Amino acid sequence: MYYYSFMSSRMKELVDPFQLVERQAVIEDVYAVSDLERVRAAVFDTGGEFKVRLAFHRDAARHGVIVGHLTGTVTLQCQRCLEAMALDLDIRPQLGLCTSEAEAERLPDELEPLIVGDAPLNIREVVEDEILLALPIVARHARACGQVAAADPEGPADEDTRRPFRDLRKMLDEGE
């Protein structure tokens, strides 16, 4: 098993994934959120980092597989209160390497297809993809934010509320 640590040698990020599968390689690196362009565009604050571990191997059915573990924290903007909120992510992707759509359809359900074709695989893009897929569609605090709750449309109205058309139906009926 070969271990590559991008932290110490900063090896190129374009790799031949099938060669890494044959070597049963493990790649470990740390990425700053500020260095991940697409993630940077999706977060509120670019502080923080992700520890990444990608293990390449073949499964029992001889598929090329990448088993990953990404951990880190991103800062998003809560859509309720519009304040910053930290979101801890623990991402464990299991990717099946494919060279075509047809090959991807034959993968077992527990593997997410990663179609690479014959081109080198960009490790940074894989990391960014997995982080982006783990982000919530709508970010919001798990607890109540302190924002004033919206008025209940079913509840009783405030007695001081003006209702200028309240008696319109009665006036129209009387006019006939």
Task: Characterise this structure.
This protein is 24% helix and 31% strand. The protein starts with a strand and ends with a helix. It has one domain. The protein is of the alpha+beta class. A hairpin with a 6-residue loop joins strand 5 and strand 6. The chain contains six helices and nine strands. The strands form two sheets. Strands 1, 3, 4, 5, 6, 7 and 8 form a seven-stranded mixed beta sheet that branches. It has a two-stranded antiparallel ribbon with strand order 2-9. The N terminus is likely disordered.
Number of strands: 9
The poorly predicted ranges are 1-11, 147-152
Q: Output the structural class.
A: alpha+beta
In DSSP terms, counting alpha (H) and pi (I) runs of 4 or more, how many helices?
6
Q: What is the CA–CA distance across the termini?
A: 91 Å
Overall, the morphology is elongated
Query: Could you describe the largest sheet, including whether it forms a barrel?
Result: 7 strands, mixed
Can you write the helix and strand succession as a string? EHEHEHEEEEHEEHH
How many domains? The number is 1
β content, as a range?
A: 25-35%
What's the helical proportion of residues? 10-25%
Report the C-alpha radius of gyration, rounded.
Answer: 26 Å
Chain-averaged pLDDT? 83
The multimeric state of the shown protein is single chain
